[in-house]
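Quick one, tokens below:
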């Protein structure tokens, strides 16, 4: 935790802010990119959301009170930015979030940054059939191996509710995969 405390202090100081922000980017850019990418699906959209996330972190670091881990706080911002992005796109295209997700998954096959096979596409379709909260919980636990305690800080939900959401999501995905 010491490193977080030191980094946060340097991010809040005008003399050390730029260098500390470069360190923050180096530490979290890739992890946040993949977290965002699992939500928005497209590489270009993930890049945009990642940029917005870091702009928001940069502008609001002075509001960070240290009540959660820095990582959890940034994941929460990335999650919220991703959902906002999806909602804006769905509204702009005048379609539902579910239709937007289906469209994004269909585009994965032609995405040069996606190296998955048919099984990965099928899994993504199964995940996208879940309600948004279950998608988030499943992705965070299954792909990122985030502990329920940390997830609780990120999503502001009890650990028990998250465990239940994860297990329900797993059952729904198993059912989807078995029938498709």
């Amino acid at each position: 935790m010491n490193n977080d405390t030191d980094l946060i202090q340097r991010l809040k100081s005008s003399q050390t802010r730029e260098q500390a922000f470069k360190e923050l980017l180096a530490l979290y850019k890739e992890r946040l990119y993949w977290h965002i990418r699992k939500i928005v699906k497209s590489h270009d959209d993930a890049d945009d959301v990642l940029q917005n996330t870091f702009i928001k972190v940069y502008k609001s670091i002075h509001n960070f009170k240290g009540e959660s881990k820095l990582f959890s706080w940034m994941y929460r911002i990335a999650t919220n930015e991703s959902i906002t992005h999806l909602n804006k796109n769905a509204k702009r295209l005048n379609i539902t979030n579910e239709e937007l997700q289906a469209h994004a998954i269909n585009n994965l096959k032609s995405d040069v940054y996606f190296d998955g096979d048919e099984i990965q596409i099928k899994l993504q379709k199964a995940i996208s059939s879940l309600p948004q909260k279950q998608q988030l919980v499943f992705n965070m636990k299954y792909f990122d191996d985030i502990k329920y305690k940390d997830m609780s800080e990120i999503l502001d939900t009890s650990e028990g509710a998250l465990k239940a959401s994860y297990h329900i999501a797993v059952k729904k995905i198993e059912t989807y995969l078995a029938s498709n």
